[in-house]
Protein 1
Amino acid sequence: MTTSLPERIGAVVRKRREALGLSQEAFADRIGMHRNYYGAIERGEKTMRLDTFERVAMGLEIEAWRLLKDGAG
Amino acid sequence: MTTSLPERIGAVVRKRREALGLSQEAFADRIGMHRNYYGAIERGEKTMRLDTFERVAMGLEIEAWRLLKDGAG
């Protein structure tokens, strides 16, 4: 079963956030995003716009293109 | 004046499309997108979702992360 783009991106975002030792709530706060919305991103239930994706990447201290490459599957 | 994300992305998408020798109309057809919507993307008037961005990258025969890197400015 191939994973969808949002699921792949959600997984790499989660991995990166956990590596920073941040909870979902702390990270959502860091980037000024509602916690529930951020949780849905990690679960692959939301497809981000590019500007949101850049915001998340910045909060994860990684370039957006690198994060997208990690999630390229 | 710093360019916005959609403007940076629109510029690299246009450059890549022109390098393939395709008109906006032919390229929009290739990826099954309405021509006006695609034109707005190139003009930086639309911020794509990641799935749309992947579709455009595929049509441009380039990995999405590479296209995002080109547009990182």
Protein 2
Amino acid sequence: MNKAERIRFLDALRALLGASHVLSEAHDLAPYATDWRKRYHGKPMAVAMPGDTAQVAEVVQLCATHRVPIVPQGGNTGLVGGATTDASGTELLLSLRRMNRIRDLSTADGVLVAEAGCVLAAVQQAADGAGMLFPLSLAAEGSATVGGVLSTNAGGTAVLRYGNARSLCLGLEVVTPQGQIWNGLSALRKDNTGYDLRDLFIGAEGTLGLITAASLQLFARPAARRTAMALVAHAQDAVDLLQQARGALGAGLTGFELMSAHSLQLVQRHFPRLRLPLELSSPWCVLLELSDNEGEAHAQARLEAVLGLAMEQGRVVDAAVAQTLAQAQAMWALREHIPLAQAQEGLNIKHDIAVPISRMAAFVESTAELVTQALPGARLVVFGHLGDGNLHYNVQAPLGGDAADFLARHQDACNRIVHDAAAACGGSFSAEHGVGQLKLDDLLRYKSPVAVAMMRAIKAALDPQGLMNPGKVLRP
Amino acid sequence: MNKAERIRFLDALRALLGASHVLSEAHDLAPYATDWRKRYHGKPMAVAMPGDTAQVAEVVQLCATHRVPIVPQGGNTGLVGGATTDASGTELLLSLRRMNRIRDLSTADGVLVAEAGCVLAAVQQAADGAGMLFPLSLAAEGSATVGGVLSTNAGGTAVLRYGNARSLCLGLEVVTPQGQIWNGLSALRKDNTGYDLRDLFIGAEGTLGLITAASLQLFARPAARRTAMALVAHAQDAVDLLQQARGALGAGLTGFELMSAHSLQLVQRHFPRLRLPLELSSPWCVLLELSDNEGEAHAQARLEAVLGLAMEQGRVVDAAVAQTLAQAQAMWALREHIPLAQAQEGLNIKHDIAVPISRMAAFVESTAELVTQALPGARLVVFGHLGDGNLHYNVQAPLGGDAADFLARHQDACNRIVHDAAAACGGSFSAEHGVGQLKLDDLLRYKSPVAVAMMRAIKAALDPQGLMNPGKVLRP
């Protein structure tokens, strides 16, 4: 595209959306050009901000005509560079943020229809306002959007009971790479009429088309919730406690998070006002949440029964059950501040692995040995969604070391150690963050070539021009 | 394919599988040639019965070389003709029944790996034997196979709590149309590494490749189950009772089936040994099931509380809670005998519709009016999974009429009335049975053309020779 063509394209775009919804000045582009973790620095040709689905379709048609690649962006909270353009200045960043309406909410059907730019917290609040629950919950929920959490199939802290973003989505509205609108906003629980296009777009990170709206599943709000923290001596004790709690509480067990004592010590260092309810006398701490349909007292008794038995059996060293909502929120705050404390402590090498629960303890122990052998003094910050077999197995520079230098020198080798170890356990190198730009090589290394070939065939079939978020998920 | 080519192909097939695993005599083919409902009569060139995945891959390669279309078949219990060949004598029927091993079962991971030919009941029993639950349950479970229930994304009576077949599958092993083996038998709850190929094969009815094995999710077995029947005067009362029970019982509500009084009267007529626990003084009956993690007494009290309140409120006319396992089984037997009683009564026009719960009562009432206006004397046999918004809205010939003639003359018009009514409510013409051959026209009529075009693009990309179950799901 030469300069004259570029001008014609931007003029057409402005005519379509109104000049105020097309950004092209460097200082306007800046907030959209860099990812949240500041690892990827793109240079969009412009930022287009359509206000409705018809406009999205027209923008996509315009891009198809001019062969302009499109990079969709929601809240820009992704962790793998999936919503950042390349540095060529030829890609259009398409921000869905203006499309932030909740179009419909039916308590009778348990369905909420939200546009792609709707912030996750706004969906939670709308459900809550109607006396229902939208359970998807994650640290970035104040900024992350519906389109983003679906395009990355986000996870979070309630997957154990309610599943990931995929499980909570009943239907989609999508603009195809040809600029057509597919209205698949179903409110049905069952519909076996052809290929599952919905689940193909979910988790495709915008490479097959643009999600513009979604029908999301709401749940009855539990009558009571109870949160507890429990200290255990070994990772295997946490796994055994999980099985025990799951057996006793069934679907009532709505949260089961693991945190290493070291992660909590980082929180204490950087957020000293957050108080620990237990003295960290063991290397591992578990956060449990019970949702109960009967009431506070019943919930309390059930959770205490599980933890009491586990203590008798020597599986749990010490435990505290929150007695008030404030205490429960304080426990969750400890968990949620781990990534922030880690960021305060300095740059670190992040992983988002999953392994089968039965291999979890062995993975944690053997990988710790491998990492500390290869990188003497490196500090492990291990925490995550044990109930889903998903840990953020992060590695921080040695105390007092130069974190940026550590990252630059050791990131690749460290990724290889951790991802090889997960793969050896039948695990995944990306449990809930996706592939984006960050893990393109991992995908080729760990994924079956047969699967990659099918992915390429699907990409070529649906997006033959290759204009939808190019260079993400699959290396071109 | 001329005769010499056909002989060469069959010789190669016998060399591959052993002569005893290739059937080509008419009397051997017969059980595979006709569907369970005896609506479709195919003429397979032969039946191939591979014993393992490598053999399936070799058969597919052989077929690709000789351009022989493949129709996969499991238990042959499908309701839409999806597993029946055409009458040309050129299609190979590939039976997966010999592949019936349970390869692995891990209680720690809650995962069972079963081959495609494994009968559903065998999977349930294996889970039960390990002290766990595989919740997928449907009338044909004694014959239906894992490959079949996944290829049609089967539903059944436990979808309300545990989801359909799709929700219970963690990973697949698939032989592609090129005869390659994709090992995607994951035991992970979370894995965001590229396009969701698993869900693309689930529900594709064998048109994109052959499912040869699956990793399936097991659950903790509830401590107690309680079943009840409740009579209601209007369909809307049943819907209101559903909301009330869901609010009070949450995930404990594992079954919620609706049966018209007329359906139960048919059961009484044809299976008089099955006793009704309530006198049918109302036009609708609901079957509820509660699964409880605490025990029998707790379950009993919870279910009685819900039904007691609903009776006080006038929503429920009469109710009976099963006091013993035998009573509970008798209640379920009434529900499960409806399709059998209906078959005894004579041929009928079946539907498998879904509508949003909020539209259910209006759909039921207005459709009854439309059908009986168009087909005077026609008898409605309405029952199904109300909790999922899914009804089998079946239409039987007038009492004493010629059922075969009624079917031949009125099936198309009747389908149109019922499917149009479902579509007008935002519903589906196939909730859990799939498309197969039976609903090819419905798919084109009711599905968005944008979605159909994407389906065709995916089919062409993955199966460019068009040899995988041709003429199913999509008209060629």
